[in-house]
Design goal:
CATH topology of the largest domain in chain A: Glutaredoxin
Structural class of chain B: alpha+beta
Order of helices and strands of chain B: EEHEEEHHHEEHH
Shape of chain A: elongated
Oligomer: heterodimer
Number of helices of chain B: 6
Shape of chain B: globular
Order of helices and strands of chain A: HHHHEHHEEEH
Strand content of chain A: 5-15%
Largest sheet of chain B: 5 strands, mixed
Low-confidence stretches of chain A: none
Number of domains of chain B: 3
CATH class of the largest domain in chain B: Alpha Beta
Radius of gyration of chain A: 18 Å
CATH architecture of the largest domain in chain B: Roll
Helix content of chain A: 40-55%
Number of helices of chain A: 7
Strand order of the largest sheet of chain B: 2-1-5-3-4
Largest interface: A-B, 8 and 14 residues
Distance between the termini of chain A: 20 Å
CATH superfamily of the largest domain in chain A: Glutaredoxin
Number of strands of chain B: 7
CATH class of the largest domain in chain A: Alpha Beta
Radius of gyration of chain B: 20 Å
Low-confidence stretches of chain B: 200-204
Mean pLDDT of chain B: 89
Number of domains of chain A: 2
Structural class of chain A: alpha+beta
Mean pLDDT of chain A: 92
């Protein structure tokens, strides 16, 4: 992500320091993570100390300071999904992608995370890819979903 | 700026509007233990050690004196059985993080806190925020800041700023009640490449 694009996002919020979190979210959504250069640029343009940006960026789970994949897989391991076999779904996805929860693969294709509830327990076990919910997913079906992503 | 009369530990104390209970007590020479308070810095209310009992009319509550403003007819008690018990607990929890801090050990002796009550979890930092706030509010350099949150919260120097500013300043070092700060600084120094020089580099 180059500085021009970061500047565009900052300009969208009129360079207001109070919009810091919105700006960081904008960069995070587009780039999937917050590179140090981008944070330094934001710090300079908004006149907010880097230490404060670092505090905020590490505080919220929505932000990542390490590269993330193009597609984010969330697997629910909450109680309802757990009793309906979320662990088996998770194991299958781990085998398919070759990564553990919290990790990103080398091609930056997938990042895998476990979550504790996606708010649709009746659909358990639930897998969410890039915000799209796949309910009542059988371990065998996960491959069909994931093969659609590049 | 009307003067407000408050009663602290039975002593009449004159305070002005906007003062905190802690400031009023200190002005009358009544000592309240603190860890995160510093006269040059904004009140933080982080360590909770300056907790006192305040009473307005019949209503008694326990408040943190460093962020509680004085008001009319306030009666303050800085020591009581309950207050001592709360302070003892706070100290015991902090000693699990920084068992060898002289400042904490002195207070522990006064309040009868047992430093071995809880399993050691030596992070050494007790999150008083003195270094972070001093660097921000007084020096305006922001070379050190908090990262992460909850049980993983810790202080961290920004290496690029530390390389330029810290070597000739180090004013935050004596503020730290536990010496965790020095450790964080040494860590930053050893992780920085090229290493931070003892003299400010001539290129700047």
């Amino acid at each position: 992500m180059d500085n021009d694009r970061v500047d565009q996002i900052i300009d969208k919020y009129q360079g207001e320091a109070s919009s810091l979190i919105q700006i960081l979210l904008g960069i995070q959504t587009e780039n999937h993570w917050l590179p140090k250069e981008a944070l330094e640029r934001v710090s300079e343009k908004l006149q907010v100390p880097l230490a404060r940006i670092q505090h905020i960026a590490t505080f919220y789970k929505a932000f990542s300071l390490v590269p993330k994949g193009r597609h984010e897989i969330h697997i629910c391991v909450g109680t309802a999904c757990h009793v309906r076999g979320a662990t088996r779904v998770l194991d299958t996805v781990r085998d398919l992608t070759g990564i553990k929860p919290g990790e990103t693969d080398l091609d930056l294709k997938f990042s895998l995370e476990t979550v504790n509830c996606l708010g649709c327990c009746a659909l358990g076990p639930v897998m969410e890819v890039d915000g799209k919910t796949h309910g009542k997913i059988a371990p065998g079906k996960t491959a069909d979903v994931l093969k659609n992503f590049e | 700026m009307s003067d407000i009369l408050v009663r602290i530990d039975g002593k009449e104390v004159e305070a002005s509007q906007g003062m905190t209970v802690l400031e009023a007590a200190q002005s009358a020479g009544i000592s309240i233990p603190t860890l995160c308070h510093h006269e040059k810095l904004e009140p933080f209310g982080g360590c909770r050690l300056c907790i006192v009992e305040v009473q307005v009319g019949d209503w008694m509550k326990r408040v943190v004196s460093c962020v509680y403003p004085v008001e009319k007819n306030l009666i303050v008690r800085t020591r009581s059985e309950m207050i001592d018990k709360i302070r003892k607990m706070i100290l015991e929890l902090q000693l699990a993080h920084a068992p060898d801090s002289p400042e904490l050990l002195d207070l522990a002796q006064e309040y009868g806190a047992d430093k071995d009550r809880f399993d050691k979890e030596a992070s050494f930092c007790i999150h008083c925020g003195l270094c972070v706030r001093y660097c921000d509010e007084v020096k305006k350099k922001n070379a050190v800041g908090f990262v992460d949150r909850g049980i993983r919260k810790e202080i961290s120097f920004i290496p690029e700023i530390a390389a330029k500013e810290c070597w000739n300043c180090k004013e935050c070092f004596p503020l730290c009640p536990t010496e965790a700060l020095q450790a964080a600084f040494v860590l930053t120094k050893s992780l920085t490449s090229p290493p931070l020089s003892h003299e400010p580099s001539s290129e700047e």
